[in-house]
Specification:
mainly alpha; 81% helix; single chain
Length: 115
Amino acid sequence: MNTEGNGSRTFFAFLLGGLVGAGAALLLAPKSGKETRQDIKDLAEDVRCRVSDYASSLGETVSSNIKKGKSAITDRKSMLKTAYEAGKEAYQREKERIESGDGEELGGEPGEQIM
């Protein structure tokens, strides 16, 4: 479930509801035109600041998640490379052992590991 997307929708729904309510209050309040225009200007500035803060926070979250993803990929790549190299070395040792004649008689039970 994507909680980040749900949080964004909730935030924007809340913001839109606040804007509609504030706009209705401004238009229905018994004030002069000059006061109403100033109130609208103040409201617009407040909304701009809130949206800017939210966008900045969202950008930081995305950047952090990208860094975590890159780190996880690097870690997995390193682990896979190490496992590949270990498998390759084990294959070469076993191949050399068999070619030298030591592998003719494996001894032990089937499925037993040879070290």
